[in-house]
């Protein structure tokens, strides 16, 4: 078994196209990102942001937890929503905004240790939501940063 990571397009979540540089006459590889798949990822992050906004009102919470989850959840929703919009327009997601969403996800994951949440259920929900946002947004930032061009999935007849 090899210890080297696989560089196949399927493992990276991207496909590789070969472009010919007409000036130099040489071929180069491009990393092309499937924007359809990344749209789902951004939509999922946005939905988790909405859950963060709603959860303190549905579960027992303190005022600090309401402010924290509402403000950070709204920010996550807006950041992921903007990247979703960019991806629907066949553009790559904004790496800086995805990175900021990942950082906000890390904050929301550790916030129950810093802020009194009011209930263990809300604390658990907030932590798990933060971990999900951080992981998904970090992957989005990584994939979009490594991509050279966006591409929609083609339908097969």
From TrEMBL:
Record-annotated membrane-spanning stretches: 40-59, 65-85, 92-110, 122-142
InterPro entries in the record: SPW
Record carries keyword rRNA processing: no
Region of interest called Disordered, as start-end residue ranges on this chain: 1-28
Domain SPW repeat-containing integral membrane positions: 40-138
Superkingdom of the source species: Archaea
UniProt KW keywords: Membrane, Transmembrane, Transmembrane helix
Protein's UniProt keywords contain Transmembrane helix: yes
Bias kind Low complexity: ranges: 11-28
Pfam families assigned: SPW
Protein name: SPW repeat-containing integral membrane domain-containing protein
Source organism: Natrialba taiwanensis DSM 12281
